[in-house]
Model the fold of this input.
Amino acid sequence: MMPTATVAPGARRDSKFNVGLVQMSCSTDPDANLNKAIAGIREAAANGAEVVCLQELFRSQYFCREENAALFDLAETIPGPSTEALAAVAKELKVSIVASLFEKRAQGLYHNTAAILDADGSLVGIYRKMHIPDDPLYYEKFYFTPGDLGFQNFETRYSRIGVLVCWDQWYPEGARITSLQGANVLFYPTAIGWHPSEKQLYGEAQLDAWRTIQRAHAIANGVFVAAVNRTGFEGPPGNGLEFWGNSFLADPFGRVMVQAPANEEKVLVAECDPKQMDEVRRNWPFLRDRRIDAYSPITNRWLG
Done:
């Protein structure tokens, strides 16, 4: 059984820390994908990373392109085989790891879940994806029950972090709530790409919108934002997804610090300094000027 993290609240919240992002392509072999992810973590750690984030559902190809009950066999428990393997690596390398997994919570109950492992190998906690899409080639509602743990922060050895997953990245509410709990960085493990029939007409605008919304979260909350996407083409030639990579880290003013290419596997490492958050929030005091007395209508579905 994995140990429970015992890091004291607030530990190292103001210290600099190095973030590692592992962008990779995936095969149909879960073990090979796990080994590739571990190799990416090792590369990130060798380059100074202290908190390493893997892409969404990194153990497999993005299976939600189809509705196939047999693919539930890809799911595993948390703790389980993948978290045990990653915990050993975390402890060996003294790094914290954000790992996105297909969680089997119980028979017939599954989640899209990120496990947060600390530098001593302990399981700090889990975040279950709150927003579940249902679009062509993104049939996630067939597989995943919406998260029931809310938006959270996790205290790791190196920093206090927030974790959300993919479709969550389009919702400012999730970013705000997570940031208000004190996170220095919001991690978004991601699997997003182009439909072959749409790329020529909409591809550039889609990628720009994806990058813009997450940079906006950084600006609006004065927080670092890390998006970790997969790369490569998955599925049949005419009806698959071309994942657009472009994993990146933005600073609290929304400036892109490092970014991966679209079509290559890449490990990124960059330093985050919470003092930048102080500087940005003092000069752009959005948190100070929030009208918390006037926001209750936001919990309604529609106001028209």
Remarks:
- Confidence is low (pLDDT under 50) at residues 1-11.
- The longest strand covers residues 96-106.
- Residues 17-299 form a domain with the Nitrilase/N-carbamoyl-D-aminoacid amidohydrolase fold (CATH 3.60.110.10).
